[in-house]
Every structure is written in structure tokens, then in C-alpha cells.
């Protein structure tokens, strides 16, 4: 299927004046979050951070669009349109779309490392924009559906869903066909950056097979903006570079690359399923038959449970496809299937029990769910995805709790996230025990998801008031 071209530049209305009135506390937080997104806007998309992440990131843009819809529906649409305009011919959405105006040494790996327009030609990489060659979790269709629902009339007038739908279908087709490297019906990730949880302890075992690139063969830029104790180690980076180099040197062709890292991740597949449900809604809105999307969501859910569910652990496990065994580490991606409406009730109940139990401690040891089990040998409350709490993960889990009827716990998690966003100045991630800010500040998806949680809080409050009135 060939997707129609996306629209060009559009006139985007500004967000409301942040100093227009004297705010209440939620209003103050709303305006502060809006200022972050306005400052990080480049004219076509939103950078996660002006310093540390100066380009467009794939799943960041999806989460940012979800928040932007509360400021400007057109800008939220443009966020997704600009990302999907960089889609490859084989259907993949690259995890980075590079801004030509940013100096090459501002971020590593830079466009001259990935060489997408040349090295990725056989896979259909775009010729006019440089991107990375790997992907990130497929939350985009869910984001598109939520953006559409914010103002269906504007969406229809701009042809938003009509133009994005075939591209989203191709993106999912890429994951379900070209990335089913285990042959069991689930999408595989080929690099630790693809599931978005870059240095999770879940990858330590599979990465031991990877010979790291020589230390002097690359120059990290992330340490110019963040403390080394908060970031992945040089050994981690050497292995990341080796995997990306090998993929690039084989033309980014999934079937032709001798992969040293192939993992079935429950978080990636859960978001694929959630987005298949969203595609069914999009198809219906466009007057098309949603049956294939609903059937695929059901089939993928059954496969996810059959293949990755560990009843003894009370959570899903990553699966090392090359080694043919489950990964023993308890990463938070094993809780993310809670977002799925079609999850068996006993599985959903067990996930919520694990989330609030000793391993993740929600509501007891911590107020936000950590990225890795508190009880794990590799737990570190400061280092990137090895323990800190992330706002996008907690947004997904809050949504999952509401999906499965745990409204009081969802409200508690929502309050904790909002309070932490405010106190940390929209930090990239935080210490799960103390809420102390880690990573960069004024982070794009933290600000965006703050806006969405504020809107959810208002709707939940109205629902609670309605229930009280009925009583």
C-alpha cells in the first residue's frame, strides 16, 4: 500500500498566554507545562530537550502529541504528521528524525553515523531527510486517535486520519511481518534503544554476546548535558554502537543482518496491540471495516500471554530469542500490558498485585513505579532505566489501572505524578523513592503528559461528583 503524501506546513495557533490570569495550583502547573512545550517547539515538531535531545524522537513525539492536543489540536496533528513524513518505504518509523540545522557534534550518534539516505536505500529510507535506522515503541496510532478525539471537526477538515491511517497500517505491518524474527507472532527489537528503555538490566544478559566498539571509535555527547552517574556506562555505549554499526553495514535489512541482539519485549508488543485497537477506531471513523485490526489485537494479546506471561512472577518477561529463554530481570516493561482492554482478568489482577507488591512498591515504598524492580540486584535509583521512575511509563500504568477498574489507585498515581512533575521542574526521570530530579529538566513528554493527567484529573473529578449527586 502506498500512503498519500502528508500535508505541508500549516498555520498553528499559539497556546494561551501563560500570564493571562492569576492561577490556581493546577492552572499554574498547566501554564508551566505549556511553556515547556512552546520553548521546545521547532516549527514542525517538539524536541524532548533543547540541549540533550535536539532532534525529533519517535515515541517522544507520540506522547508529546497526546499532551499538545490540550493546547493546540493542529499543533498536535502536525507533531505526528512531521514524524510520519520520515517513514521508510518498508514501513518502519525511525526512532530519530534529524534536524539539519543542528550541528553534527550536538548529538551522538549523529546523521553521519547512521547514513540513512545511503545505507538504508534498499530498505526505502527517505532521500531528503536523515534519520536513524532503528525504531521505537509503536504508540503512534493511539496518539493519533486521542488527538483526533480532541477535536473531530478540525481533524476531519484537515484530513488528519485519512492521511495518517495508511502510514500507520504500514508501520504495524512492518512490525508484525518483518520483525517477527522469533517466528512466534510477536515483534522483536534489535537494539536496546528500540524498546525505549535503553540500559534496562533486562538487556544485560543479551548484550553480553555483543563485542563493544573500540572506546576511541566514537565520542559521546550525552555526558555534556548529564551526570555520568545518571547515564549508561561507556561499556553499554560501546555495545550500542556495535549493534547499530552492524545493522547499518547490512543496509538496515532485517532478514539479512546477522543480529547479535533479538528480544521480544512485552512493552513494545503491548503498545502495538493498544495501537491496533486504536487503528480499529480510526478505521471505523473513516467508514472502513475495523475487523482486521480487532482480530489482530485479539490474536496478538493471546500470543503475548501465551509466550511472555510468567504466572509465578506475576508479570510478563522479556524473551531472548537468540538464547531461546526468558530474561530473569524484572523490568517495568513487564507491567505495561496492563494498558490492554482485552487482557485476561486474572492476568490484569496479578499485574496490579505485582505493581503494588515488594518488587515495584507502588503506594507503599514509592509513589511512582520504578523502571526496574526495587528488589533487583542491578537496581540503581539514579541511573537512567535501571531504577528511576519515568513519566511516560507511569502515564501508561495510570491508564491501565483505570482500564481495569482500579480508579482509587489510578487517582493516587495521577496525583503523585503531577506533584512530582511540579517539584522536579518536569524532569526527564526521578528517583523513585525521593522524587528527586534526574536527567535533564523541562523534558517534553513530562510536560505533555502533565497536561493530559491534569485533563484526566478534571474528568475524573467530574465523574466522582456525578456519582455523589446520584447517591
From TrEMBL:
<dbReference type="InterPro" id="IPR054491">
    <property type="entry name" value="MGH1-like_GH"/>
</dbReference>
<feature type="region of interest" description="Disordered">
    <location>
        <begin position="1"/>
        <end position="25"/>
    </location>
</feature>
<comment type="similarity">
    <text>Belongs to the glycosyl hydrolase 63 family.</text>
</comment>
<dbReference type="GO" id="GO:0009311">
    <property type="term" value="P:oligosaccharide metabolic process"/>
</dbReference>
<keyword id="KW-0378">Hydrolase</keyword>
<dbReference type="Pfam" id="PF22422">
    <property type="entry name" value="MGH1-like_GH"/>
</dbReference>
<dbReference type="InterPro" id="IPR012341">
    <property type="entry name" value="6hp_glycosidase-like_sf"/>
</dbReference>
<feature type="domain" description="Mannosylglycerate hydrolase MGH1-like glycoside hydrolase">
    <location>
        <begin position="53"/>
        <end position="446"/>
    </location>
</feature>
<protein>
    <recommendedName>
        <fullName>Mannosylglycerate hydrolase MGH1-like glycoside hydrolase domain-containing protein</fullName>
    </recommendedName>
</protein>
<dbReference type="GO" id="GO:0006487">
    <property type="term" value="P:protein N-linked glycosylation"/>
</dbReference>
<dbReference type="InterPro" id="IPR004888">
    <property type="entry name" value="Glycoside_hydrolase_63"/>
</dbReference>
<keyword id="KW-0326">Glycosidase</keyword>
<dbReference type="InterPro" id="IPR008928">
    <property type="entry name" value="6-hairpin_glycosidase_sf"/>
</dbReference>
<dbReference type="GO" id="GO:0004573">
    <property type="term" value="F:Glc3Man9GlcNAc2 oligosaccharide glucosidase activity"/>
</dbReference>
Amino acid at each position: 500500500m502506498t500512503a498519500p503524501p502528508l500535508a505541508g506546513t500549516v498555520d498553528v495557533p499559539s497556546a494561551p498566554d501563560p500570564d493571562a490570569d492569576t492561577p490556581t495550583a493546577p492552572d499554574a502547573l498547566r501554564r508551566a507545562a505549556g511553556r515547556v512545550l512552546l520553548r521546545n517547539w521547532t516549527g514542525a515538531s517538539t524536541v524532548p530537550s533543547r540541549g540533550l535531545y535536539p532532534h525529533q524522537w519517535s515515541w517522544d513525539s507520540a506522547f508529546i502529541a497526546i499532551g499538545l492536543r490540550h493546547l493546540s489540536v493542529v499543533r498536535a496533528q502536525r507533531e505526528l504528521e512531521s514524524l510520519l513524513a520520515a517513514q521508510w518505504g518498508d514501513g518502519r518509523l525511525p526512532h530519530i528524525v534529524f534536524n539539519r540545522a543542528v550541528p553534527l557534534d550536538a548529538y551522538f550518534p549523529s546523521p553521519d553515523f547512521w547514513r540513512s539516505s545511503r545505507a538504508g536505500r534498499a530498505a526505502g529510507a527517505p532521500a531528503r531527510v536523515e534519520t536513524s535506522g532503528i525504531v521505537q515503541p509503536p504508540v503512534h496510532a493511539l496518539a493519533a486517535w486521542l488527538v483526533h478525539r480532541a477535536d473531530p471537526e478540525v481533524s476531519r477538515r484537515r484530513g488528519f486520519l485519512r492521511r495518517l491511517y495508511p502510514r500507520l497500517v504500514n508501520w504495524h505491518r512492518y512490525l508484525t511481518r518483518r520483525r517477527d524474527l522469533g517466528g512466534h507472532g510477536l515483534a522483536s527489537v534489535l537494539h536496546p534503544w528500540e524498546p525505549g528503555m535503553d540500559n534496562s538490566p533486562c538487556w544485560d544478559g543479551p548484550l553480553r554476546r555483543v563485542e563493544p566498539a573500540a572506546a576511541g571509535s566514537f565520542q559521546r555527547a550525552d555526558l555534556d548535558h548529564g551526570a555520568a552517574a545518571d547515564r549508561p556506562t561507556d561499556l553499554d555505549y560501546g555495545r550500542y554502537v556495535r549493534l547499530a554499526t552492524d545493522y547499518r553495514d547490512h543496509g538496515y535489512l532485517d532478514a539479512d543482518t546477522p543480529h547479535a541482539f533479538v528480544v521480544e519485549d512485552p512493552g513494545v508488543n503491548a503498545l502495538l496491540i493498544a495501537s491496533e485497537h486504536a487503528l480499529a477506531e480510526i478505521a471505523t471513523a473513516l467508514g472502513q471495516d475495523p475487523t482486521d485490526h480487532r482480530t489482530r489485537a485479539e490474536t496478538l494479546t493471546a500470543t503475548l500471554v501465551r509466550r511472555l506471561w510468567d504466572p509465578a512472577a506475576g508479570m510478563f518477561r522479556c524473551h531472548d530469542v537468540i538464547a531461546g529463554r526468558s530474561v530473569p530481570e524484572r523490568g517495568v516493561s513487564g507491567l505495561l500490558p496492563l494498558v490492554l482492554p482485552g487482557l485476561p482478568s486474572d492476568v490484569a489482577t496479578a499485574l496490579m498485585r505485582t505493581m503494588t507488591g515488594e518488587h515495584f512498591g507502588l503506594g507503599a515504598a514509592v509513589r511512582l513505579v520504578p523502571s526496574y524492580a526495587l528488589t533487583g540486584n542491578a537496581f540503581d535509583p539514579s541511573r537512567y532505566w535501571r531504577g528511576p521512575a519515568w513519566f511516560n511509563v507511569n502515564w501508561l500504568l495510570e491508564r491501565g489501572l483505570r482500564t481495569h477498574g482500579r480508579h482509587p489507585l489510578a487517582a493516587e498515581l495521577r496525583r503523585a505524578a503531577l506533584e512530582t512533575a511540579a517539584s522536579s521542574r518536569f524532569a526527564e526521570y526521578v528517583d523513585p523513592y525521593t522524587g528527586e530530579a534526574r536527567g535533564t529538566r523541562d523534558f517534553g513528554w513530562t510536560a505533555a503528559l502533565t497536561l493530559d493527567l491534569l485533563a484526566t484529573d478534571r474528568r475524573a473529578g467530574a465523574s466522582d461528583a456525578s456519582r455523589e449527586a446520584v447517591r
